[in-house]
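Lecture 7, part B: from sequences to assemblies.

Below are the input chains for today's worked example.
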Amino acid sequence: MNFTALDWSIVIIYLALSMAAGLYGRKWVSGVSDFLVAGRGLGVYIGVATLAATEIGTITFMYYAQLGYTTGFSSFIVGLISGLVMIFVGRSGFIVKKLRDLQLMTVPEYFEVRYSRRLRILTGLLVAIAGILNMGVFLRIEGTFLALITGIPLHYLRLVMTGVLLLEMAYTVLGGMVSIVITDFIQFGALSIATMVVTLDSIHVAGWEKMHDAVAISLGNSGFSPLANSDYGWSFIVFQVLFWFAVDTCWQTTAMRTFSTYDSKVSRRVFTWTGFIFLGRGMMPMLWGIAALAVIGPGHDSLQAMPMFLTKILPTGLRGLVAAGMLAATMSVNSSYLLGWSSIIAQDVIVPARRKPLSSSAQIALNRFCNIFVSLFILFWGIWYILPGPAYFYLNITGTISLAGTFVGVIGGLYWRRANILGGYLAMLGGIVGPIGFFLLHWPANYAGFGAFALAGAGMMLGALFGPTGQPEKGAAFG
Amino acid sequence: MSATRIWWWFWTVCFVIGGASFSLITAVVLFKGVGDLRQMVRRIRNR
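Predicted structure of the full complex, as structure tokens:
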């Protein structure tokens, strides 16, 4: 066991505080808009905290560190693109301004506003499938990290995963977005401190020049130049730019922050500020992977290398603090993702498919039920499914199942008068070809991803050429 | 200077900017976010 009584005390105190704050938030939930978008009351600073906390998890640290361990400094290209794209989205208001002004609660809801109710249901289904498959590996990877850092034997992994899930479910099911925002704020503080501590310690222990030498010896030029690395290259860079635009604007968990802010001006500031955080969010854990390469050497399991490295360098007390921070990161992501995907199933598949509308309290109950369903699925998927390669590529491609089509459908709907219902359908269906190629035909991730966006775009244009130019079902939502 | 070395210096600069941004903005957000939280609760309560 790597943990001492001091480490466990730090973790338990943190968990108790976090849970208490989360459960306290349920008293503010009086309607479905409170449950899903915190009553649209988020200001800039809390918006940044909750957006950053939602998209920075132990899963993030694990897959980025894996990239750093296997591809060296070349992996920084991913962190750079993610930050710069988000800053651009914030500064320009591209998509986020118009979506916020429409007062939506989910991304597929836009498809009913602009196209048709049936397309909303198809989009909702694909978004839910993408999100749940994407999230399906979170618990396993997070559980692996927690087990390694605490010293709990890996065969207790399922127990660790179940325990973490139950804690997250407690305040997510009861308090929805209000509870999530409150706990995200606390968790953002804890995970940020842990991130900075680990980064400084990694540089101190591994040494900047030593990291350069380790990458040069193990990987050569491909460890520094993303253009020379066979995992990256120009096609990957183009795919990543498109992917991050799609994630920042149309990924439900990110979009929920757009919808939850006080107004579109606040949304844009949230994205700009968070974009700068994203620069560090990517590169810092990648550096931990590079430091692991320098200190423990190559040849280890690439996903486990970073936690193994941390157990070696972190002293007692600091280990507990870092574990608490990582637990914070885990819970903030998982709670938001649970809410995100369950709200899609409830609001964008079940509710629109019913003939009779549901009351606000019935919708909340339905959202809670879907939350439990999603939780159980990811528990079983995480136990059963084996990753086909680096976690980052699996996550990119599962997300792309819906992101390619959704992104094209939203851009077409907001900025192109000729975008029509047929184009929307073809975009959504074209977007799933790439992921099918990745999982069933073993296409490389960059070609599968890039291909998904290209086919989605082609589908939208074909629809505009051959389909009727109908009016949106709910009035003028264009422009 | 080799291409590899140029890339390394480029990533070093990017990392310093990224790390500094992360740290600075985190500090500001945590300090000012408490007020935002209070305001959010007030908005929900006063509806």
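Note for the exam: Chain A touches chain B through 48 residues (CB under 8 Å). Keep this in mind when comparing with the next example.
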